[in-house]
Amino acid sequence: MAVLALDTTTAVLTLGITDFNTLERYQTWEIGREISQYLHQHLATFLQPLSWSDLEWLVVAQGPGSFTGTRMGVVTGRLLAQHLQIPLFGISNLAALAYAYATTVSKIHVGDRIAVEIPGQRGSVYGGLFIWDAHQQTLTYPHQPIGCFPSQEWQQILVREPIQHHITPTSSSINPQQICQALIALGHQQWLAGGRSSWEAVLPYYGTQAAYAGNSQG
User: Which one, of 92, 73, 104, lies nearest residue 175 by Cα?
Assistant: First the structure.
């Protein structure tokens, strides 16, 4: 059985599939605003030679990101999971970026705090704080949740909290494939822990809520 990951939150569509054994494949497409026109076509082509019945669960990036792209990805994941009657895990882009960073940077230590931020609108910041557990290869949360903050408030959080790593999409060398790998890894952790998330529980995150903890892993 295989698992499929979808990230449609940016201008780059990224798909990933693995069976955690011999199969592991990723692909990206620069499709910009034409996500609705090409998503299903790329999905069907990318899945081959497997069939939809070969999928055991799905994972999708929930945002924050492009409004249209985020909505399309989450809606597609929900429809597939409902039709196939398999679990769907939703992961925030902030958690995926933190995980990708932690697993590709050599100078990160047990207990290090990672601050991740993505620029929002009107001076806001989508921010999240994570603690890296290198032994378990997992992220945990300090008391501050993932959320959408005014820029000044976010800067105050960064000053107040002991931060060892501060990353943004532009300041890191993380690429779309690594984000997709992180989505699968975080979804797999939930699966191994007994999580069987229903498609109904996975919603897109546009940054309008005051705070957001996501689907277990963000």
Answer: 104
Rounded CA gap, 197 and 57, in Å? 9
Q: How far apart are CA 187 and CA 3, in angstroms?
A: 10
* CATH code, 187: 3.30.420.40
Quick: pLDDT tens for 138-150. Answer: 998 876 667 889 9
Domain extent for 127:
107-167
What is the pTM assigned to this prediction? Answer: 0.90
In 3D space, the residue among 127, 123, 155, 151 whose CA is nearest the CA of residue 141 turns out to be 127
Answer whether 92's CB lies under 8 Å from 117's CB. Answer: no
Alpha carbons 153 and 139: distance in angstroms, whole number: 23
Number of domains in the chain: 2
